[in-house]
């Protein structure tokens, strides 16, 4: 397995997200590097997909911009290769299962290993179907990050016990996108997860302000922020790195102000 869990050991983790090839190749590389140099512990890189069922309009629009830039799966791997010339920040792909299946599970995961991509988040992969990819991921030391939601209920135990890397805790029902209200049982949800595993938890979906980041990092071991950063890219385009730098520093400071342990 990867060493992702160790990142959460001594402090709360900040995990930002950007879409690959939005608005273009060079800008994506610069955005990832800006995140890495200004406080990101792990960077989540979204592979554009035509039917991103978990994603809201901000990320869907980013996918469309990437398609306009003629993105392909190989483009994403090339972006990672370029990033690796600048930073060794841990990288996680957010992808959908058909992308990996079409490329070939073994070939895809082998390429991830070569480029030091630590794990995959696959929102449309049910727990019951993990067996078709997890053994191959294990061969290459790559984590398949599970998602646990407010509706996971009796499934929490089996999902948590099988988890490696970290657990993506979904903050509220619905799709990604900035929001001001979250599931009011998040603390209890994280407590329930921790009955079954020592694997760290990170809360995502909707978090966008420093205050929210501090709050969520006080509940879990880390916080994931996507749409807010993707929106910066949409507005600033090739000039996004400077704005991302400022935003990342603000979130980093807020997360660091949360308690050291849950």
From TrEMBL:
<keyword id="KW-0057">Aromatic amino acid biosynthesis</keyword>
<comment type="similarity">
    <text>Belongs to the TrpA family.</text>
</comment>
<feature type="active site" description="Proton acceptor">
    <location>
        <position position="55"/>
    </location>
</feature>
<dbReference type="InterPro" id="IPR013785">
    <property type="entry name" value="Aldolase_TIM"/>
</dbReference>
<dbReference type="InterPro" id="IPR002028">
    <property type="entry name" value="Trp_synthase_suA"/>
</dbReference>
<keyword id="KW-0456">Lyase</keyword>
<dbReference type="InterPro" id="IPR018204">
    <property type="entry name" value="Trp_synthase_alpha_AS"/>
</dbReference>
<dbReference type="Pfam" id="PF00290">
    <property type="entry name" value="Trp_syntA"/>
</dbReference>
<dbReference type="InterPro" id="IPR011060">
    <property type="entry name" value="RibuloseP-bd_barrel"/>
</dbReference>
<dbReference type="GO" id="GO:0005829">
    <property type="term" value="C:cytosol"/>
</dbReference>
<dbReference type="GO" id="GO:0004834">
    <property type="term" value="F:tryptophan synthase activity"/>
</dbReference>
<keyword id="KW-0822">Tryptophan biosynthesis</keyword>
<comment type="subunit">
    <text>Tetramer of two alpha and two beta chains.</text>
</comment>
<feature type="active site" description="Proton acceptor">
    <location>
        <position position="44"/>
    </location>
</feature>
<protein>
    <recommendedName>
        <fullName>Tryptophan synthase alpha chain</fullName>
        <ecNumber>4.2.1.20</ecNumber>
    </recommendedName>
</protein>
<comment type="pathway">
    <text>Amino-acid biosynthesis; L-tryptophan biosynthesis; L-tryptophan from chorismate: step 5/5.</text>
</comment>
<keyword id="KW-0028">Amino-acid biosynthesis</keyword>
<comment type="function">
    <text>The alpha subunit is responsible for the aldol cleavage of indoleglycerol phosphate to indole and glyceraldehyde 3-phosphate.</text>
</comment>
């Amino acid at each position: 397995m990867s060493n992702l869990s160790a990142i959460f050991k001594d402090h709360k983790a900040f995990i930002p997200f950007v879409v690959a090839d939005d608005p273009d190749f060079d800008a994506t590389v610069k955005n990832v590097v800006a995140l890495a140099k200004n406080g990101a512990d792990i960077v989540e890189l979204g592979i554009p997909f035509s039917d991103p069922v978990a994603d809201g309009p901000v990320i869907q629009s980013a996918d469309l911009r990437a398609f306009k830039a003629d993105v392909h799966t190989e483009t994403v791997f090339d972006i990672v290769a370029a990033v690796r010339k600048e930073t060794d920040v841990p990288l996680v792909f957010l992808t959908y299962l058909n992308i990996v299946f079409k490329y070939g599970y073994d070939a895809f995961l082998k390429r991830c290993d070569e480029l030091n991509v630590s794990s995959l988040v696959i929102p449309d992969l049910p727990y019951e179907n993990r067996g078709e990819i997890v053994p191959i991921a294990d061969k290459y030391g790559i984590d398949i990050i599970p998602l646990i939601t407010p509706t996971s209920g009796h499934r929490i135990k089996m999902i948590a016990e099988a988890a490696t890397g970290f657990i993506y805790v979904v903050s509220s029902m619905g799709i990604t996108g900035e929001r001001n209200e979250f599931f009011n049982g998040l603390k209890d949800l994280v407590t329930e997860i921790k009955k079954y595993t020592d694997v760290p938890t990170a809360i995502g979906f909707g978090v966008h302000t420093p205050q929210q980041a501090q709050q969520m990092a006080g509940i879990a071991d880390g916080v994931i922020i996507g749409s807010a950063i993707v929106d910066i890219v949409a507005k600033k385009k090739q000039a996004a790195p400077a704005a991302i730098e400022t935003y990342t520093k603000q979130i980093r400071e807020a997360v660091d102000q949360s308690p050291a342990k849950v």
